[in-house]
Design goal:
CATH topology of the largest domain: AhpD-like
Structural class: mainly alpha
Radius of gyration: 16 Å
Oligomer: single chain
CATH architecture of the largest domain: Up-down Bundle
Protein name: Carboxymuconolactone decarboxylase
Number of strands: 0
InterPro entries: AhpD-like, AhpD_core, CMD-like, Uncharacterised_peroxidase-rel
Helix content: 55-70%
GO molecular function, one term: peroxiredoxin activity
Number of helices: 9
Shape: globular
Order of helices and strands: HHHHHHHHH
Low-confidence stretches: none
Largest sheet: none
Mean pLDDT: 96
Number of domains: 2
């Protein structure tokens, strides 16, 4: 049971109704997370706007989903892990790609470096060093992509915290959490 009511799209009004209609159009339904966030029009606008902004980002959908899966797994957010596993498959990732991403791994060294950086941001609460940034650059990631990674991590922390703190019911197929090796 959630710690806040889930806002029904049919009873919503104004800007919340408009955004829930957009979310419904994008997903074919309104996932429970958005229904919980809809209790705050400002939070819903921020979250939905961020997802929209990243759809045109430089990292691409597949890498964005790998970052989301890694962050969700690290934070033990079952909701986001399940949701982003589904979205990752839609973005062309294999089950193996997504399973590896849960613990910051990838068969591609460049991707693994960026996922490792994303998890370091989570683990160190953003307190990374100049050397950490240089290591990501050494794998060919641009400053734009590094900043976008930080922003994606921040968005995923937001969604993880919403789902965990509010007890949002998972409405995607469950995915088992993994512990880092």
């Amino acid at each position: 049971m959630t710690n806040v009511p889930l806002v029904d799209r049919d009873s919503a009004t104004g800007e919340v109704k408009e955004q829930l209609d957009q979310i419904h159009a994008a997903f074919g339904a309104v996932p429970a997370m958005f229904k919980a966030v809809a209790n705050s029009p400002a939070a819903l606008k921020s979250m939905w706007g961020s997802f929209g902004a990243f759809s045109g980002g430089t990292l691409g959908a597949a890498l964005g989903e790998q970052i989301a899966v890694a962050v969700a797994n690290r934070n033990s957010c079952e909701y986001c892990l399940a949701a982003h596993t589904v979205l990752g498959k839609k973005a062309g990732l294999s089950r193996d790609d997504l399973t590896a991403a849960q613990v910051g791994e990838s068969g591609d060294a460049r991707t693994a470096a960026l996922l490792g950086f994303a998890l370091k941001l989570v683990d160190e609460h953003g307190q990374v060093t100049a050397e950490d940034i240089a290591a990501v650059r050494a794998h060919g990631w641009s400053d734009e992509q590094i900043v976008e990674t930080i922003a994606q991590v921040a968005l995923n922390l937001f969604t993880n915290y919403v789902n965990i703190a509010l007890g949002v019911p998972v409405d995607f197929p469950a995915v088992a959490l993994r512990r880092a090796n």
